[in-house]
């Protein structure tokens, strides 16, 4: 075959693989557009809507709302934020979000453009959560309707209510005893704008209640048999507290300036410290520093007014907070890395993209460069991280387009195209050397396994402060099951074995998920060794990096399409490619997607080879 024919094969394969976003993945991408278990597309739609409003690329400079898109202390019926929120919520609804979830995500992303959580106008009493809820047309149900994201299980707000109100009735949250107050003290300026409230009651009640509520949520998560990721317990502890206390109250001078320190901040501080969250968090890409107590307190204000978001909404808010560098520590979603998550989670770039656009005054090119930079540094497999980002951003543009999705596409398109082309070349050369499509797909998966072991071990060493190395000895299906389905798709019951080294000490882990983890957690086997937990943690992280690979299946589709163009029967090429890519075939769908890609590749190849004619 001539060099020209070689390039025609490679071009046809490369174009076919990314002909539409769904060809890149086994995740249920189309379902995400209408909100079936994911709000990822809705998050991008909101981000696009807000950024188009605050920069207004299509209008005159005086139409830009960046400096005016906030709550203001003014006696007016509507403010610019009303228009922005309404449009953002409608964009999310277009992508399938329920009104409650649309309100939550719109308020969250508006907050990160600089919109304050409260205005302090006594008569109007505007707050960001309430504005979003009203524009979404949903009732206020209160913090009782809040629920954590799904961390295997999810915990409603009830334990925090119970703990706070038990302490409240026992008079343990504040030294101010209401039973001794003379009439006409509480409810007026003698309490609300004076020493008793601002110096004593407000700060201690806010701090103590939020702390008690947060701890109760974390204890309940432990009781349900799950790890207590701290962000949502802190949110709920703060929200319930601010539902109860004077949420706009200023604190005494010992706590800060009159306008700078309020009860929401103190509730955020109590929740933050109870949860063990760092006192400063930083945005990916811009490195902007946020005061965590302020953020937790402000989101307590938002959440108490927002309505009743679902578990999916809670998970989506988690993922927006994955835009902070500290997300692995605070338990904020999966999409900030280091593991590449299923596509339904990939929304952690929305908030950093907004912050970068603000930093660069709407410059999409500079924003794209910074997104690519932090993605390259935050993930075990940055190539796949950028491929999955590209898939989601491209699908989001099926619904609505804007600066955020465009920046994400620009950040990822070159890496995606390189990833596709490199695999097509490798497959082409292997088949021309006499290897099979199954051989090619297997070698691509083996390359990725080795990369995940090497780079993942380095990242985990930095994260744990220990010298960690992981080498998989086998990854096969059916750690404990015997049915035909799990025999074929290993992600549903993995038998994962590996050698680990922690600070020079060797461990062999045999059947991680079905044997070693239950033995450690239930029977206590190995818990006396302080490094055994690290060995299990490290293997679990890297195994899941391989296990979630359904987000990007190019190790199946590219070999299949290349082999078909080189003469292999299309169905056989697809079947053998799925078989060879034993890691990428973690969940169903690879063979079927490969067949579709093969058909498109053949059409492109046939047209390329047709003689050009003006007739």
Account of the 3D structure:
- The chain is mostly helical.
- The chain folds into 3 domains: 1-26 and 435-615, no CATH class; 40-136, no CATH class; 145-306, no CATH class.
- Helices cover 56% and strands 5% of the residues.
- It contains 25 helices and 5 strands.
- The protein has helices at residues 3-17, 29-32, 40-55, 80-94, 99-111, 128-136, 158-169, 189-192, 195-223, 231-244, 263-275, 292-305, 311-320, 327-330, 350-359, 364-378, 382-396, 403-432, 437-464, 484-488, 512-522, 532-547, 554-565, 570-580, 590-608, and strands at 280-282, 289-291, 468-477, 494-502, 505-509.
- The strands form 2 sheets. The protein has a 3-stranded antiparallel beta sheet with strand order 3-4-5. The chain has a two-stranded antiparallel ribbon with strand order 1-2.
- α3 (40-55) packs across α5 and α9 (195-223) packs antiparallel against α10.
- It starts with a helix and ends in a 7-residue tail after the last helix.
- 54% of the residues are buried.
Strand-helix topology:
Layout: H1 3-17, H2 29-32, H3 40-55, H4 80-94, H5 99-111, H6 128-136, H7 158-169, H8 189-192, H9 195-223, H10 231-244, H11 263-275, E1 280-282, E2 289-291, H12 292-305, H13 311-320, H14 327-330, H15 350-359, H16 364-378, H17 382-396, H18 403-432, H19 437-464, E3 468-477, H20 484-488, E4 494-502, E5 505-509, H21 512-522, H22 532-547, H23 554-565, H24 570-580, H25 590-608
Antiparallel strand pairs: 1-2, 3-4, 4-5
Give a nutshell description of this structure:
The chain is mainly alpha-helical and 615 residues long.
């Amino acid at each position: 075959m001539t060099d020209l024919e070689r390039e025609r094969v490679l071009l046809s394969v490369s174009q076919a693989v990314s002909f539409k976003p769904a060809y890149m993945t086994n995740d249920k991408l189309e379902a995400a557009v209408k909100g079936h278990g994911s709000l990822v597309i809705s998050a991008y739609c909101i981000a696009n809507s807000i950024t188009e409003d605050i920069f207004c690329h299509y209008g005159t400079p005086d139409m830009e709302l960046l400096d005016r898109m906030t709550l203001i202390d003014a006696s007016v019926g509507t403010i610019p934020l009303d228009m922005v929120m309404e449009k953002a919520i409608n964009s999310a609804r277009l992508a399938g979000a329920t009104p409650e979830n649309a309100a939550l995500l719109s308020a969250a992303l508006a907050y990160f453009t600089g919109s304050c959580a409260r205005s302090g106008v006594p008569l109007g009493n505007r707050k960001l959560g309430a504005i979003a809820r009203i524009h979404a047309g949903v009732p206020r149900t209160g913090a009782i309707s809040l629920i954590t994201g799904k961390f295997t299980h999810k915990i409603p707000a009830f334990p925090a209510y119970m703990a706070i109100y038990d302490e409240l009735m026992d008079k343990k949250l504040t030294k101010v005893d209401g039973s001794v107050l003379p009439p006409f003290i509480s409810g007026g300026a003698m309490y609300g704008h004076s020493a008793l409230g601002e110096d004593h009651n407000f700060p201690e009640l806010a701090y103590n209640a939020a702390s008690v509520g947060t701890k109760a949520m974390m204890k309940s998560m432990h009781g349900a048999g799950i790890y207590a990721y701290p962000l949502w317990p802190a949110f709920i502890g703060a929200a319930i507290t601010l539902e109860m206390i004077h949420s706009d109250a200023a604190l005494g001078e010992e706590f800060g300036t009159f306008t700078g320190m309020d009860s929401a901040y103190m509730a955020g501080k109590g929740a933050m410290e109870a949860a063990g969250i760092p006192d400063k968090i930083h945005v990916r890409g811009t490195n902007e520093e946020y005061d965590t107590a302020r953020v937790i307190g402000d989101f307590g204000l938002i959440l108490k007014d927002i309505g009743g978001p679902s578990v999916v909404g809670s998970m989506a808010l988690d993922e927006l907070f994955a835009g902070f560098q500290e997300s692995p520590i605070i338990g904020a979603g999966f999409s900030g890395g280091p593991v590449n998550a299923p596509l339904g989670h990939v929304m952690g770039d929305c908030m950093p993209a907004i912050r970068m656009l603000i930093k660069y005054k709407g410059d999409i090119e500079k924003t794209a460069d910074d997104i690519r930079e932090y993605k390259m540094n935050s993930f075990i497999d940055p190539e796949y991280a950028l491929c999955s980002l590209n898939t989601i951003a491209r699908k989001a543009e099926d619904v609505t387009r804007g600066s955020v999705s465009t920046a994400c596409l620009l950040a990822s398109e070159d890496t995606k195209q390189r990833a596709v082309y490199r695999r097509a070349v490798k497959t082409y050369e292997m088949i021309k050397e006499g290897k099979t499509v199954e051989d090619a797909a297997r070698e691509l998966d083996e390359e990725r396994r080795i990369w995940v072991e090497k780079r993942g071990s380095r990242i985990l060493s930095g994260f744990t402060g220990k010298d960690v190395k992981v080498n998989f000895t086998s990854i096969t299906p059916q750690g404990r099951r015997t049915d035909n389905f799990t025999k074929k798709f290993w992600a549903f019951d993995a038998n994962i074995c590996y050698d680990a080294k922690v600070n020079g000490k060797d461990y062999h882990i045999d059947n991680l998920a079905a044997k070693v983890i239950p033995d450690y957690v239930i029977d206590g086997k190995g818990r006396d060794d302080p490094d055994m937990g690290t060995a299990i943690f490290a293997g679990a992280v890297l195994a899941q990096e391989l296990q979630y690979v359904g987000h990007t299946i190019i190790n199946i589709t590219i070999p299949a399409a290349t082999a078909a163009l080189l003469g292999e029967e299309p169905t056989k090429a697809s079947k053998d490619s799925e078989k060879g890519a034993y890691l990428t075939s973690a969940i169903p769908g690879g063979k079927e997607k490969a067949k579709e890609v093969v058909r498109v590749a053949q059409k492109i190849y046939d047209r390329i080879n047709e003689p050009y004619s003006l007739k």
